[in-house]
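Milestone M4 deliverable, item 7.
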Amino acid sequence: MPGHEITQQLDVVYGSTVRSKHVGRDLLAGLKNIVGGELTAYTELLEESRQEAMQRMIAKAQQLGANAIVGIRFSTSNIAQGASELFVYGTAVIVQPNAPKLPDPFNP
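Output delivered:
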């Protein structure tokens, strides 16, 4: 983090959610596959899943006393037919702002 220094590394934290597709979304996505274009229903589902997993990870970091998470990574996997997991993880840390450097009066 620019302007900050990691003073303590706490632990790996994670969050996940498992979501299933909706039959109505599947039908619309199937039609969209024929004509092409963005599958907005799935884009929205993925965004909701990402936010939920992130909030769970942040809550775990806060329980440890962290004020930042570094090295965040996302992963997805199929759990069952029609159900997928979105998994996010990172390292919970404590950061502090760097002390401002005072100008050297002898070396302008």
